[in-house]
Amino acid sequence: MNICIIGGGASSVLILNRILKKHHEFKNTEIVIYETRPAIGPGLAYNENNGYRILNTSPNKMSIGEDKYDYVSWCLDQNKNELLRKTYGKYLEYKFLEICKELHHHNIIVNAKHEEVRDIKIQEDKVCIKAVFSNSYYNIGIIASGGIINEPFSFLQKSDRYFSFLNFLDFDKILSNNAKTVGVIGTGQSAVDVSLMLQNKGYTGKIIMFSKKGVLPKVRPDNILTDDFNEELEKLINTNKTSLHDLIKFSTSNIEFGIADEYQDWKKFIKEIEESRKSLPRWNKLMNQFTPHIIQLWSKLSEKDKKIFKLKFLETTQRLRGGIPLFSGEKILKLISNEQLNVIKDINKIEILEDGFSIHHLEGEKFEVDFIINAAGISANGVFKIINGLLKNRNVLMSEYGGIEVDIATNQLIDHNHNAIKNLYAIGYPTKGVCQFVNSIEFLKTFADRIINSIIVEKNSKLKTVSENFI
Predict the structure, then answer these.
(1) What Gene3D superfamilies would the database entry show (predicted)?
(2) b/e string for 102-115 if b means 16 or more Cβ within 10 A?
(3) Terminal Cα distance for the chain, rounded
(4) Does residue 370 sit in the same domain as residue 346?
(5) pLDDT tens readout for residues 343-357
(6) Torsion of CA 89, 92, 96, 98, to 10 degrees
């Protein structure tokens, strides 16, 4: 049997680790990973270009294996005492090499092809991968291509004063040009990270964050969930039907959303910070209770209810789960109080100037900035660049909510007839529309486990059929 994995980020390392755990089912298997970057493991999210971006998850939730302290132990062994994304990328790279060595002992060979995948097709019972330098056929295909950088103003890339936070950010250039004003696209976690990094690097000019709604992330407050939240939620999940009405009624009775409609409501922001100071350590425990059920709840909703939930409640739920740490909230509030940071919404257009940019507000006001940093996050739609053949032959369904449709139980792709494609899987950002929260290592572990278990079931089913026909 041969397996291909398209993408060499965290999801791929988790897939390999699950194969290692079930190595007796994969003897004499060849695994090929397609990845354009030189290293396997870091991917877009945890590569060197992430500079001083910090992890926003407890390190005990970031381990690849079963030992939840594995990542922390590695950090101690490496004398790494900072919780940076690029440090976690080094850990992923280390785990990849370690897992490959162990797989080799079990006659499971892993190879990497550092070339771009241009298309994926299903030909008879094989997955055909068309890459830049080669065409290859595999028994099993796993799409783990990750997300792509969201570029709401892509034409800005032709300016040498425009940077993408996830690719490369030249602080020295910004500082050496004595920039008076820096614009930041986005007002979420990444935008907060950018603003604080600018401050830490010694930047003393003004920062203008801008997004469609102009709303900052929620500060992580405590006392969000009732003590019996988990038990009540499990009862709701275990019922035969879960309606949107049930979900909203339950959520609003147990969760204080507390998101300000207008960014000017600093009193709400200050109140959240004060609440966070009281008992911050409980936050992760409460979120660990809440998040594992989101996917199950989502999968039970009707299509009509999904649309309503996405339009009215999904963004609020995501903001609740993705709150910024207390210390970040306090620093951002200080920047605002000192009039060093401004947050605006309703941007109409951006013009490239000779020495910067002109940002046009919907109401006619203009702001001139010396540099722009894109911190708008990641999009799931990058997967469509590599599945032209699947789309053309109606082998795959696009999700209305981003990415592609997959079977929630197996992560197998769904074709136009709503049937599962038995030998083609997806994990991570390509499945965003179905799986919702796709950047959590804990969730990705679950999805990796589902994929490997499904591959084993399909393999053994074929062997049984062959055996019965032979008899």
Answers:
(1) FAD/NAD(P)-binding domain
(2) ebeeeebebebbbe
(3) 23
(4) yes
(5) 888 888 899 999 999
(6) 120
